[in-house]
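Running this now, will post back.
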Amino acid sequence: MPLRIGLTGGIGSGKSTVAALLAACGASVIDTDAIARELTLPGGTAIEPIRTTFGADFIDARGALDRARMRSLAFGDPSAKRRLETILHPLIGAETERRAAQATSPVLVFDVPLLAESTTWRSRVHKVLVVDCSEATQIARVQARSGWDRATIEGVIAQQASRATRRACADAVLFNDGITSEALDAQVRALAAHWFATAS
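Update: finished.
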């Protein structure tokens, strides 16, 4: 049975970078955010339930989810966020397990942005790796890559689990702040080597 690792971190923490480094070490990485995006592309399984629940205004001209409109609604209306999650989470869970069953690596990494907020994910993995950094670093990174304004980013951070909550559920923490990419790579490789040795 593969060793199942849950990977999480706040927006701008560098979680996706760590996921890519783990993949380079030979782990099979299953990105639940990528699955969610696929489900909401034109023809995606979630499109018709979203149209039925929220209305045609939330589907763009291409037939995909209007992500900006939905983000604005979900951030301002907790009940809308819950309705969206009721549609997406079962679909994401099913596709995640389908991909896990097809994976061949002895180390499976589940990239789950909201793992700490979930009531079920901790029991589905053997270990949790948290990528952590200061809130100031999160804001700077997200501004640099997306151009979002500070208030929008702070709103996203406020809706995510706190750094303390994420660290509390972690078996390992990578503090990705003020270190070089080479130093981060070395830490990831050391963790991966330990996990592959454990898995075998």
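The CA atoms of residues 8 and 106 lie 20 Å apart. More later if anyone needs it.
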